[in-house]
Amino acid sequence: MAKLFFGMLTALLLGGAVAAQQGPPPPPKAAPPPNWIDPRNPPKEDPKVAPPRTADGQPKIEGEWAQASDIITYSIEDPELERAEHTAISGQRPMVGRPIIDPIDGKLPYQPWAMKYAAFLHEEHRKPSSIRYLDPVSRGFQEGVPRINYQGTFQIQQFPGLVLFTYDYHHTYRVIPLDGRPHVGKGIKLWMGDSRGHWEGNTLVVDVANNNDQTWLQIVGGFHSDAFHVVERWTLSAPDHIVYLATVDDAKVYSRPWTLRVDMRRQKVEEQWESAIWEGNKTPEIVSGSDK
Fold first, then answer.
1. Phi, psi angles (nearest 5°) of residue 15
2. ∠ CA 198-183-145, rounded to 5°
3. Quick one: which of 2, 195, 222, 228 has the fewest CB in 10 Å?
4. Domain for residue 79, yes or no?
C-alpha cells in the first residue's frame, strides 16, 4: 500500500513539473459575435442583386454601415494570443476572423528589412521608448485607408457625381469624386490619401493615392511608406450587405500586393456619435508628444 501511495505521489509531482515546463494552456478561441461573417468563408453572393438607383444612375449604397466581420483594432494578422492580450488590457471581448485573404497565410508580406522593423514596432507598442513608436491613432491622428473602414460605424451618402463617407472616428470624412478628375500632385501626401472613384456594375471602385507614411494598419504597427497605394472595391451583394475589398501595394515595404476583406452590414437603428480626442483628455502629454 505504501509503495502504491508513493508511486501515485511521484506521478503527480512529475506531472506537475511537466505542466510547469509547458506553461499555461493557450487561451480559448474567441467566440464570434452574433450574425458574424467569416471573411475567409463568406456566404455566397447573389449575382441577381439589383440595387435601386440614385437620380444620377448610381447603384444606391446609402446608409449607416458597420463591420459584420468584427471591428479590427489590435492586429489584422490574426494572432489569437495577441487578441487575448488586448482583451486582458482593454476589457473588450476578443476579436475574431482573419481579414487578410491574400496571401493565404493572412500575414503582411513584408520585405526582409521591413519585417525586422515591424517586429520592433510590435515589441515597442506595449511600452514605447519614443512617441514615434506609439500608434498614431492614440495621439488623435487619422487612421488612413483602409484602416478607417474596419474601425467602427460609418455613413455613406450619394450626391450627383460624388460619394461621401463620414466616420465616427475623429470627425473623418471622405469626398470621392466620380467625374474622372486626376489625383492631386504627386508631391502632396495626405493622412487619408486622395480618393477617386468610378462604378463597375454594382461595385464602387476607389483609387486611393497620395498617402503619407504616417498611418498604421493596426495598433501593433503595420507600417508603410509614402508609396502606399490602395484600390477599394465596395460591392452591394445583398440589400443589407456590402463586401469590402482593399488591395494594397507599396514597393518600398512589401514584397507583393496584398488584399483584405471586410463584410459590412447595414445598421438600421445606428446613430453616429462624436469621437473626441481632446475634450476631457487626462493625458495630453501623450497626444502632443511633449513627454519625450
1. -60, -40
2. 70
3. 2
4. yes
In a domain, 171, yes or no: yes
Please report whether residue 193 resides in a domain. Answer: yes
* Residue 211, domain member (yes or no): yes
Number of CB atoms found within 10 A of residue 271's CB: 9
Count of the separate structural domains present in the chain: 1
Q: Alpha carbon 207 to chain centroid distance?
A: 18
Residue range 220-274, pLDDT digits in tens: 889 999 999 999 999 999 889 999 999 999 999 999 999 999 999 998 877 777 7
Helices and strands: H and E segment counts in the chain: 4, 10
Compute the half-sphere exposure of residue 135: CA atoms within 13 Å on the CB side of its CA: 19
Q: Could you tell me which of 102, 109, 101, 76 has the C-alpha nearest to residue 256? A: 109
Cβ atoms of 218 and 209 within 8 Å: the answer is no
Domain containing 107: what range?
Answer: 63-89+97-269+283-288
Please check the confidence at residue 93 and state whether its pLDDT lies above 70: no
Specify whether the CB–CB gap between 194 and 175 falls below 8 A: no
- Name which residue leads in pLDDT, 32 or 4: 32
